[in-house]
């Protein structure tokens, strides 16, 4: 099954956070922060959204930095994805 976002929506797959700190301490599941870096899996067409013309700036395969608690989490075929508006993406990570 594939996800095809509409409007200015973007489908992201979160990149797992580090399990250990730089000094070698292993983090418990509750101590880890929600990852903020994600890979773009699919991009909506943009166009007119809420009466404004929206141009899409991200492409599939880009790594991006997102707001901590933005978007809607969905699980499809055992994989977890987050669907966000393009405006919830803070930066492209190069």
Quick structural gist:
The chain is mainly β and 94 residues long. It is 0% helix and 43% strand. The protein is globular, with a radius of gyration of 15 Å.
Rg estimate, integer Å: 15 Å
Biggest β-sheet, characterized? 6 strands, antiparallel
What is the beta-strand fraction? 35-45%
Number of strand elements: 8
Distance between the termini: 29 Å
Shape verdict: globular
User: Runs with pLDDT <50, length 5+?
Assistant: none
Number of helices: 0
The overall pLDDT average reads: 85
SSE succession: EEEEEEEE
Strand arrangement across the biggest beta sheet: 6-7-1-2-5-8
Helix proportion range: under 10%
Query: Structural class of the secondary structure composition?
Result: mainly beta
Task: Characterize the structure shown.
This protein is mainly β and 94 residues long. Helices cover 0% and strands 43% of the residues. The protein has strands at residues 9-14, 37-43, 47-49, 52-54, 63-66, 72-76, 79-85, 89-93. The strands form 2 sheets. The protein has a 6-stranded antiparallel beta sheet with strand order 6-7-1-2-5-8, with no helix packed on it. A two-stranded antiparallel ribbon has the order 3-4. The protein is globular and about 50 Å long. The model has no long low-confidence stretch (mean pLDDT 85).
């Amino acid at each position: 099954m594939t996800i095809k976002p509409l409007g200015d929506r973007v489908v992201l797959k979160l990149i797992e956070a580090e399990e250990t700190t730089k000094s070698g301490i292993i983090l418990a599941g509750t101590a880890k922060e929600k990852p903020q870096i994600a890979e773009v899996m699919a991009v909506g067409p943009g166009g007119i959204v809420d009466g404004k013309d929206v141009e899409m700036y991200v492409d599939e395969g880009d790594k991006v930095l997102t707001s901590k608690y933005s978007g809607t989490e969905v699980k499809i075929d055992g994989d977890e994805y987050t669907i966000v508006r393009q405006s919830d993406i803070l930066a492209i990570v190069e």
